[in-house]
From TrEMBL:
Compositionally biased region (Acidic residues): 41-68
InterPro entries: GrpE, GrpE_CC, GrpE_head
Pfam families: GrpE
Family designation: Belongs to the GrpE family.
Protein name: Protein GrpE
Organism for this UniProt entry: Nocardiopsis changdeensis
Chain coiled-coil ranges: 80-107
Lineage of the species this protein comes from: Bacteria, Bacillati, Actinomycetota, Actinomycetes, Streptosporangiales
Length: 245
């Protein structure tokens, strides 16, 4: 900002000034638009090489600090052994987890199969009375026409699901699959045998859905011995007859 002084005033050094004195204290030159005086700051001096090296060395020291660097070959070998042991331990952990997962999958699959078998067995068990009616109709020659086609289709469908009919006349009696309604003596047999089937049995695989209801023939004691004793007597008569001739 311009300032004016009295021309009659005296200067600080005692010299007499004449006329007004105008000083332009504006920082920006109105003609050039540049900063007057010390406008452009001098660039900072680059740090010396020695100072940079010291700073980098300190930073490296801070980064390395806290990390144990082996100094001897023995330490290097020990670190390598420890690393190998750690790898073996982690590998065993992975194998153990994989085995547990495999066992889990097998157990889930086994449970799924068991549930499916139980559900199928329940459905087939509800169909057994219908199969009995179809069997009785076949025995009395009443399975004809459309009823025959439906019956055969039903029997084929349950057979695909694994249903199997068992118990026939002449089979050996098995208390695990046969239900004995009565026991009758029968000559000429050596073991208990099914002589009549009142109701057939059904099974699905190893699962017995219904045991067969049968009449069991029991062997008669001494029947085989008496038959064998009569044979020599007949041979004696034949020989006597030939002798008389």
């Amino acid at each position: 900002m311009a300032q004016s002084d009295n021309a009659n005033g005296s200067a600080g050094d005692g010299e007499e000034r004449r006329g007004p004195v105008i000083r332009d204290n504006r920082r920006i030159d109105p003609e050039t638009g540049e900063v007057r005086g010390a406008a452009a700051e001098e660039p900072e001096e680059a740090p010396e090489a020695g100072a940079d090296d010291g700073a980098d060395t300190g930073a490296d020291a801070e980064e390395v600090e806290g990390i144990e660097i082996p100094d001897t070959p023995e330490q290097v070998v020990s670190e390598a052994i420890n690393a190998d042991e750690r790898v073996v331990e982690l590998t065993n952990d992975i194998k153990r987890v994989q085995a547990e997962y495999s066992n889990y999958r097998k157990r889930v699959e086994r449970d799924r199969v068991a549930v499916r078998e139980v559900a199928t067995a329940q459905v087939l068990g509800e169909l057994l009375p219908i199969l009995d009616d179809i069997g009785r109709a076949r025995d009395h020659d009443e399975l004809t026409g459309g009823f025959k086609a439906v019956g055969e289709a039903l029997e084929g469908a349950v057979a695909k699901l694994g249903l199997e009919r068992f118990a026939e006349q002449g089979d050996d009696f098995d208390p695990n699959v046969h239900e004995a309604l009565t026991l009758v003596p029968v000559p000429g047999i050596s073991v208990q045998t099914v002589v009549e089937v009142f109701q057939p049995g059904y099974r699905m695989g190893e699962r017995i859905l219904r045991p067969a209801r049968v009449v069991v023939g029991d062997p008669v004691e001494g029947s085989e011995e008496s038959g064998s004793a009569e044979a020599p007597a007949g041979d004696a008569e034949d020989s006597g007859g030939r002798a008389e001739e």
